[in-house]
Amino acid sequence: MKVTDKDVAYVADLANLELTEEERARMLRDLNSILEYIERLSELETGKVAPMAQVSDRYGVDESRQGSDRFAYAIREDVKDGLRESLPHDVAVKNAPDTDGTFFEVPKVIER
Amino acid sequence: MPSDLTIDEVRSAITGRQTTATALARDFYTRIRREDGEIGAFLTLCEERALAQAGRIDAMAAEGKPLPPLAGVPIAIKDVMVMRGVRTTAGSKILENFIPPYDCTAVARLEAAGAVILGKLNCDEFAMGSSNENSAYHAVHNPRDKSRVPGGSSGGSAAAVAAEMAVATLGSDTGGSIRQPASFCGVVGLKPTYGRVSRYGLIAFASSLDHVGPFAKTVKEVALVLRTIAGRDPMDSTSAEVPVPDYVAELEKPVKGLKIGVAKEYFGSGLDPEVRAAVEAAIQKLAELGCEVVPVSLPHTEYAIPTYYIVATAEASSNLARYDGVRYGFRAKAGTLSEMYRLSRDGGFGMEVKRRIMLGTYALSAGYYDAYYLKAQKVRTLLTRDFDEAFKKVDVIAAPTCPTPAFRLGEKVNDPLAMYLADIYTVTANLAGIPGISVPCGENHEKLPIGLQLFGRHFDEATLLRVAYAYEQSRKPA
Fold first, then answer.
1. Structural domain of residue B30, as residue ranges?
2. What is the ipTM of this complex?
3. How far from B111 is each of B44, B82, B225, B242, B477, CA to CA, in Å?
4. Which of B53, B287, B379, B450 is the most exposed, having the fewest neighbouring CB atoms within 10 Å of its CB?
């Protein structure tokens, strides 16, 4: 077992999840089974391999350019006269579980 | 009108005044109300918006104006794409009452081309799953055999086309979620190149792997929908500035002389013998059509699933941090803010979503980042190089879409790893960003559909569709 009860509790805390006792037990079992399978990646020698976070800097860009110049097409002119219209305030708060119409309302932030 | 209409038939029937877009939309809603109780493909219908759009098309037809390419075509959308004023849940309880204030680019482009959007389709919660059983609402039953899953995560999108409740649908594909359900339901499904179709308005699961793509009964219709939704969108910085060819016009070009790669890594143990036989027969058919079949090697294939489940869950754990009960979505009653975050996420997310958030958070956490996330990113490079090398020798690669036909509802729900392995032939295309299509290539002895998967070079959907079309035409009875 790689992952322990303590790890599950720690990771749940990082992820802002509470998890019931039953869910924690299941998570312990499932994470260990999945991580055991994932372990096979260590068979590969990757010391000299560059990591790849995304594909969009590799394909469909101007190959002759370097760095951010490859994405020159995505650059636009600064907006000089007035900003683009943003979401109206009332629309922005419309899906809020709790609002006074101006702000999102939440329970007390500072506990004492 | 019959329900098995093609896009061209819809358009010419409206142009020729044999029907109206309004009558057609009403026919489809009648059919959905009659058939969908047993299938469960739809989560929300947007009848008012659909009929308003149909009315606009009919007014154009009445004035004798030329109709746009998808005029009056009934299309439905996976519920991970937002539509202004139409409830969008991502299959999750946490977004049960979410009404988006804007339209997804792909949906907006379909409507601009005249399509009538009927409603939103069921899916695995946040597109996480391979059977559609992770929907917080209800399961989807495979129209070909209702005791079986439709595949996932775009199960509703595949089932709606198979059951003729929409002429075409949109789905999303992060690890196979378009191609696998297309294969299970016996329809055509395409995952385009990363950057080909804007992701603006697609609810994020794993941003470097997420793709929007079409489902339809035929390759030509998939090409028509792709032509409509593809192309640069300033609202998605990863959408590429690459010209969009006329995919439909390219379909008829000959396939003679094209090189089709076959990799033994996609025909190893775990592949159902009937699936193997059907896919090998399809490759033989391509050879008869004049393609040259060439062996290729994709040596890192066995590392694709472990790589995928680190990259995808790491990105998901970050993307899903936004669901905290503050600005939208489900909020649990709580005394303090931190308790509210936890209880809202606990109550709003299902087990599979929590499992992936946990795995992703673990892989990114201090002390494990190098061993898991960084390692997976390096293997992603190796997997992508495999394809780069293969595509120096061949134009298209042929493989099974899935190791088996559709499995039974409930069969894999308690074994997450077994469920993940259902994606074994599809995830690598997402890691490498190459396009992939699933085309029906036969049935097993239980009449369950089998899918042939074809991969292409980056931004070469035209060749991919051309080969898929030639194969599809060759199967038609003369």
1. 7-250
2. 0.92
3. 18, 13, 11, 23, 35
4. B287
Q: Testing the interface with A: which of B344, B358, B421 to mutate, by most A Cβ within 10 A?
A: B358
B329 at the A interface (CB within 8 A)? yes
Residue A75 near chain B (CB below 8 Å): no
By the 8 A CB rule, do B119 and B76 touch?
yes
CATH of the domain at B230: 3.90.1300.10
Residue B153 is among the residues annotated as catalytic for this protein: yes
Q: Which CATH architecture has domain A5-42?
A: Orthogonal Bundle (1.10)
- Every domain of chain A and the residues it spans: 5-42
CA distance B411 to B58: 47
pLDDT (tens, 9 = 90+) of chain B, 478 residues, equals 777 889 999 999 999 999 999 999 999 999 999 999 999 999 999 999 999 999 999 999 999 999 999 999 999 999 999 999 999 999 999 999 999 999 999 999 999 999 999 999 999 999 999 999 999 999 999 999 999 999 999 999 999 999 999 999 999 999 999 999 999 999 999 999 999 999 999 999 999 999 999 999 999 999 999 999 999 999 999 999 999 999 999 999 999 999 999 999 999 989 999 999 999 999 999 999 999 999 999 999 999 999 999 999 999 999 999 999 999 999 999 999 999 999 999 999 999 999 999 999 999 998 899 999 999 999 999 999 999 999 999 999 999 999 999 999 999 988 888 888 889 999 999 999 999 999 999 999 999 999 999 999 999 999 999 999 999 999 987 6
Cα-based distances in Å from B297 to A107, B267, B300, B383, B388: 57, 12, 9, 11, 11
Look at residue B150 and tell me if it is in a domain. yes
Tell me, yes or no, whether B201 lies in a domain: yes
Contacting residues of A for B336, CB less than 8 Å apart: 107-109, 111
B344 is catalytic: no
Question: In this structure, what DSSP letter does residue B436 have?
Answer: E
Count the domains in chain B: 1
State pTM to two decimals. 0.96
